């Protein structure tokens, strides 16, 4: 069991990223915390002291988490989050409609050429 579960849950709730990116970030932070924890244990600190020192050393505030989100966001996602929710919904609907139109046209084209 990870001794830093509560910290990782807090960071997870503050990370507004798609799941694959969020998982990579959390795994990296968990690895760093465990490395620091092990380092402090090897230095002779008790388990509780090592845990506290690792948490202090790798303390992430809201600004740090926001910078991490900004760093890992793609250009498209940054642009898309600037749009209002209503505009996002309209673009999503237009995208789905375009994909469906292409699929239907390919379907009907393949049916019409199959009988010729």
* Parts with pLDDT < 50 across at least 5 consecutive residues: none
| Broad structural category | mainly alpha
Count of strand segments: 0
Anisotropy-based shape:
elongated
Overall description:
The protein has 116 residues and is mainly alpha-helical. It folds into two domains: 1-82, no CATH class; 83-116. Helix content is 81%, strand content 0%. It contains six helices and no strands. Helix 2 crosses helix 3 (47-57). It is elongated, with a radius of gyration of 24 Å. The relative contact order is 0.08. The model has no long low-confidence stretch (mean pLDDT 82).
Describe what is shown at a glance.
The protein is mainly alpha-helical. It has helices spanning 5-14, 19-42, 47-57, 62-72, 75-82, 85-114.
Secondary structure layout plus pairing:
Elements: H1 5-14, H2 19-42, H3 47-57, H4 62-72, H5 75-82, H6 85-114
Helix pairs in contact: 2-3
């Amino acid at each position: 069991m990870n001794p830093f579960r509560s910290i990782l849950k807090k960071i997870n709730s503050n990370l507004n990223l798609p799941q694959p990116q969020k998982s990579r970030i959390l795994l990296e932070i968990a690895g760093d915390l465990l490395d620091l924890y092990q380092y402090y244990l090897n230095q002779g600190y008790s388990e509780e002291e090592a845990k506290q020192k690792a948490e202090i050393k790798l303390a992430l505030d809201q600004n740090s988490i926001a910078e991490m989100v900004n760093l890992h966001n793609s250009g498209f996602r940054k642009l898309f989050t600037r749009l209002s929710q209503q505009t996002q919904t309209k673009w999503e609907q237009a995208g789905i409609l375009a994909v469906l139109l292409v699929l239907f046209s390919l379907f009907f084209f393949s049916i019409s050429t199959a009988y010729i």
